[in-house]
Design brief:
Blueprint: H1 2-43, E1 47-54, E2 58-61, E3 68-74, E4 77-85, E5 90-98, E6 111-113, H2 119-126, E7 143-146, E8 155-161, E9 167-172, E10 184-189
Parallel strand pairs: 1-5, 4-10
Antiparallel strand pairs: 1-2, 2-4, 3-4, 5-8, 6-7, 6-9, 9-10
Length: 190
């Protein structure tokens, strides 16, 4: 009986130690993999900003992060107001559209315009450029970077270098009516 008093706690310790150890090792392996992936992204020197295009015709993000400014909330998202960048910084914008509507009724893109662009004229011309995914070909000199259109469930991206000249560069969604509804913001190069 005396042996059982010592044997039971010992068996419990061995059982829990063995079971917990493999979980700890798996957790450490997962953390190492995540850290390696983050390091690879950091080493590329490209900052990635993940944006969601929503049915309310707004650019949104899942959470606050360095280098972006957000406004109010809409559902599970924060409304994106602006992005800050250093002159010459490389930025990747990844845009995902969340919508159940057909792409002909609801699609989004990200178009970054030059400092001297006439935004209203650009958006008006874009609404007539359906055959070119609402990117007016004759105004390409006013575009720094743009994505393709993304319908519901689709993701598009563009990588660009922030201009060297400091200032407030506007970005818009050029799908008809979206700019007027507030699907716009500024890239603040400072």
């Amino acid at each position: 009986m005396r042996y059982l008093t010592y044997l039971l706690p010992l068996m419990f310790f061995i059982t829990t130690a063995c079971g917990g150890g493999s979980g700890d090792q798996q957790q450490q392996a997962d953390e190492t993999t995540t850290e390696a992936q983050s390091s690879a992204a950091d080493q590329s020197g490209v900052r990635t900003i993940e944006i969601i295009g929503i049915d309310q015709m707004k650019f949104a993000v899942e959470s606050d992060e360095d280098g972006i400014s957000t406004g109010g909330e809409t559902g599970d998202y924060l409304l994106l107001e602006s992005i800050s960048a250093e002159p010459g910084e490389e930025i990747r914008v990844v845009l995902t559209t969340e919508s159940d509507l057909p792409a002909t009724a609801m699609a989004h893109n990200f178009v970054l315009l030059t400092l001297s662009a006439d935004v209203d004229a650009f958006v008006n011309a874009a609404s007539q450029a359906k055959d070119n995914d609402y990117i007016p070909a004759d105004m390409s000199d006013q575009i720094i970077a743009h994505t393709e259109l993304a319908g519901g469930g689709e993701t598009v991206e563009v990588t660009f270098t922030a201009p060297e000249e400091t200032g407030e560069y506007e970005y818009v969604c050029s799908f008809p009516g979206h700019y007027a509804a507030g699907m716009r913001g500024t890239l603040n190069v400072e």
